[in-house]
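hey can u check if this looks right to u? its 150 residues, i copy pasted from the old doc so theres a chance i mangled smth
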Amino acid sequence: MSEFETAVFFGVRAAVAILAGFIVGLERTMNGHEAGIKTLVFVSLGSCVYSSLGFYLALGNDEIDPTRVIGQIVTGVGFLGAGVIVRTTEKVSGLTTAAIIWMSCSLGAAAGAGLYAVPLFAAVTYIVIVIVLKKFEKLLQRIDKKKLEE
């Protein structure tokens, strides 16, 4: 593979990972949540670079299994996500942030595997789910409030 082909191999994957991480991070930043644009772009991009490297090294070498790299990424990012979960005597917080960090990792890993549509579809689906669930939660709160008033 020429230098240009290598640059395209990594560059296109990285661009998709950055865009997918940006979409998710933008929603988080606009709603004032932790783990915003920079964090989620870095998680997505880092996962992409590692998984791309695994697939790149496996080109022409049947002894290398690039999916092993993805398994290690998932484990490592799981520890990162665990670091944002806080438990007090009253509640547990950070679970959604941890899940979104983990999901952003999957966006980058999919881009790194060359599955360009998957991370973009997943990022847009995330936005739709967040909008729908937010409205559903508000509806449940109104119903619960009405029950308390009775």
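The chain has five helices and two strands.
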